[in-house]
Amino acid sequence: MTRTVPPSSEPEAQTSTGPKDVAPAVALHTGTSDVRALLTSNLRQSGIYVAFVVIIGLFAVLTGGTSLSPGNVTNIVLQYSYILILAIGMVIVIIAGHIDLSVGSVVALTGATSAVLVIQQGMPWWVGVLAALAVGLAIGAWQGFWVAYVGIPAFIVTLAGMLLFRGLTLQVLDNISLSPFPQGYSRIASGFLNGLLGGNGYDAFTLLIGAIAVAGYAVSQYRSRIARIRYEQPVESFPLFVLKIVLVGAVVMAFAWQLATARGLPIVLIILAVLIIAYSVITTRTVFGRQVYAIGGNLAAATLSGVKVRAVNFWIFVNMGFLAAVAGVVFSSRSNGAQPSAGNMFELDAIAAAFIGGAAVTGGVGTVVGAMVGGLIMAVMSNGMQLMGVDQSIQSVVKGLVLLLAVAFDVYNKRRAGASR
C-alpha cells in the first residue's frame, strides 16, 4: 500500500533555519508593504506621537506662536512635572490591572509633612524631603497590604485612602496653609542649572545635555534594531529608521534650544528624566517589570507560571506611594507652601495621561514613555487653552472628550484584533 505524503510536508523538509536564511527573512520585512503593515500594527503606539505633534502645531497656530516661546515651554515643564511623575507610577499600576484614586491626597499629605517640619519646626529642607518620601513609602505599604494580602480591590482601598489621607492632611496642617519654604527647598521645582559652560544669549550646558540625550536615544534605538533583526522580527527600512532618529533629534534639540534661550535647564526636568529612564529600564528589562505585565495580561497564567502575585502587587503600590511623595515634594516646592486642598483631582490627570498614552483598561498594556506623551498632550492642551483664554469649564469638557476617545480607540483596536483572528 502506497502512503500519500501531504503537500505541506515537502516545503517543510526544504526549510532551513540556519544563518543563511536570516538575511532573506529580514529583507522580507523591510519592503514598502511590510513597513506599512508594521506601522499599521503599531497604530496606537505611533498614532499618539503623531497626535502629539499635531496638537503642538495646532496650538502654535491658534496662539500665534506664543505656546512655543522659550518662556512658555519652560513654564510647561515647571507646571506639569508633578503630573508626569504621578503618571509614571500610575501607568505601572494600570498595567497590573489596578487603579489608584488616592495619589492626589498623598501629594497633599507628603507636602504638608515637609511644610510642618521645615517651615514650622525650622528643620533643614532636606529633612522635609526625606520625611515626605518616608510617609509616601509608608502609605504605599499600607495600601499594598490591603490590596495584595487582604484581597480588597484597589479601587476600594485607594478610594478609602483618598478620604483618609485628605483628612490627615487637614489634621497635619490644622486647616491652614503654610509658607514659604526656604530657598533650598523651593529650588527643587523652581531652580535652574545655567551658566555652567557659558554661552552668548543661550545656555551651552542645556544644549550639551540635549545632544547627549539624542545620542543616547540613537544608540538605544540602533541596539534595539539589531536585536530585532537577530531574532528575525520585522523592522522598518534603514532610511526610515534614520529619518526617525533625525526627526526625534530635531525635536529634542529644538526643545533644548527653547530652554537654553530662556532660563536654562530646570532642575525638576533632571529629576523627571532620571525617573523616566529608570522606570523605562525597570518595566522593560527587569524580572519585576515582566511580572507586572504578566499579572495584568493574564493573572491566572502568571500565577501558574510561579509569579509571586501578592508580593508584586504589594511593591507596585509601595512604588506608587514613593512617586506620589516625589510629586508632593515637587508640587509643594513649586507652590512654595502647603495647602489643605493641594493635589485635588491630580489622580484623574495621572490616570488620563496613562490611558491617552496607550495603557489598556483591562491591563497588560502600556509604557512609561507613552504615559509621558499622554501627560504632555494634556499639558499642551491645558496650557494652550489657557493662553487662548478658554473658560475652565470648556477645558474640562475638552479633556474629558479626549480621554473618552482615547479609551474608545483602545476598545476599537482590541475588537478589530479579535475579529481578525
Automatic annotation (TrEMBL):
Regions of compositional bias (Polar residues) in chain numbering: 1-18
Pfam families according to UniProt: BPD_transp_2
Intracellular or extracellular location(s): Cell membrane
Name of the protein in question: Xylose transport system permease protein XylH
Reported function: Part of the binding-protein-dependent transport system for D-xylose. Probably responsible for the translocation of the substrate across the membrane.
Keyword list, A-Z: Cell inner membrane, Cell membrane, Membrane, Sugar transport, Transmembrane, Transmembrane helix, Transport
Membrane topology summary: Multi-pass membrane protein
Any one of the GO CC terms: plasma membrane
Transmembrane segments: 46-65, 77-96, 125-142, 147-165, 201-219, 240-259, 265-282, 312-331, 352-381
Spans annotated as Disordered: 1-21
Main location: membrane
Molecular functions per Gene Ontology: transmembrane transporter activity
